[in-house]
Amino acid sequence: MKVTVVGAGNVGATCADVLAYREIANEVVLVDIKEGFAEGKALDIWQKAPINLYDTRTVGVTNDYSKTAGSDVVVITSGLPRKPGMTRDDLISTNAGIVQSVTENIVKYSPDAIIIVVSNPLDVMTYAAHITSKLPRTRVMGMAGILDTARYRAFLAEALNVSPKDIQAVLMGGHGDTMVPLPRYTTVGGIPVTELIDEETLNAIVERTKNGGGELVKLMGTSAWYAPGSAAAQMVEAIVRDQRRVFPVCVKLEGEYGIDGVYLGVPVILGKNGIEKIIELQLNEDEKQLLETSRGHVKEVMEALDNINAAKA
Ligand SMILES: NC(=O)C1=CN([C@@H]2O[C@H](COP(=O)(O)OP(=O)(O)OC[C@H]3O[C@@H](n4cnc5c(N)ncnc54)[C@H](O)[C@@H]3O)[C@@H](O)[C@H]2O)C=CC1
Ligand SMILES: O=C([O-])CC(=O)C(=O)O
């Protein structure tokens, strides 16, 4: 299995490292626009192989997409991260240009690839990659839900003083303040979380999860990478090993949840064909309302992208 990761920065290099040391792919190609940057990161990861004992080959290139030819999965992390005081949506004009040009190159050399978008604003960059690639929606998806649920699970594990391994959760909607955590679908070793935690603490955890990315941007001056890079690698693993894992993933909705033509995080089954199935949960009225707010927000930002593209045309 060959996997390309575009963008050898914080998230891209972390993802490539996880793909290599967990031997998720046989070959990982890292691509960056900065001369020598991807080459250096790939060489460093390869030199770690004798220490961590793996044989995944890691190769770095500066903008040479011919080396990515025949990739089974491509992860797009190229683009600016936000700085304190910015929203993810503030990145749209710069990152849309980057994601769209990267996608053109990817599809040229790997027409059969499955594309996982990580660049922000996530839902709208998934839209950008999808319309540029012209691939079926099952093969162009965005990573955010695994990260957002991981934050939620980590905060719950801390509050309950239990292993994060035993916390199962799902959330939906856009990757931003309007994300929709679903405490009703959160369990701890099979026990509904609401039986173990008081409402006030749970609400505080939900709010902290919504601001999870911003909390890290404030602390570090740039956004997170360990959890995001690992989350993207986990999606790659589900695809290349045909694991049929159930994850929240950003995908174009075509009627599911009563939504058409908007890219939102929903639970899916992820396997060798990409999105094997979108799972439709029964939402209550409050949850439906939260999802509708999220849909409205993502739709607005999609329209902003349409305007940017129309102005360029
Ligand atoms: N979906 C999610 O949950 C998350 C998304 N992100 C997003 O991922 C993106 C990357 O974040 P970081 O890795 O922290 O940023 P970074 O600045 O460390 O790395 C980005 C890399 O992209 C490269 N790049 C820029 N234009 C390029 C092009 N045309 N072709 C190839 N490479 C290009 C840059 O040279 C840089 O090395 C950001 O947009 C960030 O907001 C970050 C964390 C979580
Ligand atoms: O917060 C950001 O800008 C990066 C991101 O999407 C996250 O860490 O959730």
TrEMBL record:
InterPro entries registered for this protein in UniProt: L-lactate/malate_DH, Lactate/malate_DH_C, Lactate/malate_DH_N, Lactate_DH/Glyco_Ohase_4_C, Malate_DH_type3, NAD(P)-bd_dom_sf
Keywords assigned by UniProt, alphabetized: NAD, Oxidoreductase, Tricarboxylic acid cycle
Sequence ranges assigned to domain Lactate/malate dehydrogenase N-terminal in this UniProt record: 1-142
Key word Oxidoreductase present: yes
Domain of life: Bacteria
Statement: the UniProt record of this protein carries the keyword Oxidoreductase: yes
Catalytic activity, as annotated: (S)-malate + NAD(+) = oxaloacetate + NADH + H(+)
UniProt binding sites for NAD(+): G7, A8, G9, N10, V11, G12, D32, N95, V118, S119, N120
Residue sites binding substrate per the record: R82, R88, N120, R151
One Gene Ontology term from the biological process aspect of the record: tricarboxylic acid cycle
Short name of one Pfam family: Ldh_1_N
Enzyme Commission no: 1.1.1.37
Active site: H175
Chain ranges of the Lactate/malate dehydrogenase C-terminal domain: 147-304
GO molecular function terms noted in the UniProt entry: L-lactate dehydrogenase (NAD+) activity; L-malate dehydrogenase (NAD+) activity
PANTHER family assigned to the protein according to its UniProt record, in alphabetical order: L-2-HYDROXYCARBOXYLATE DEHYDROGENASE (NAD(P)(+)) (PTHR43128), L-LACTATE DEHYDROGENASE (PTHR43128:SF16)
Summary of the function given for this chain in its UniProt record: Catalyzes the reversible oxidation of malate to oxaloacetate.
Similarity comment: Belongs to the LDH/MDH superfamily. MDH type 3 family.
Name used for this protein in its record: Malate dehydrogenase
Organism: Pontibacter fetidus
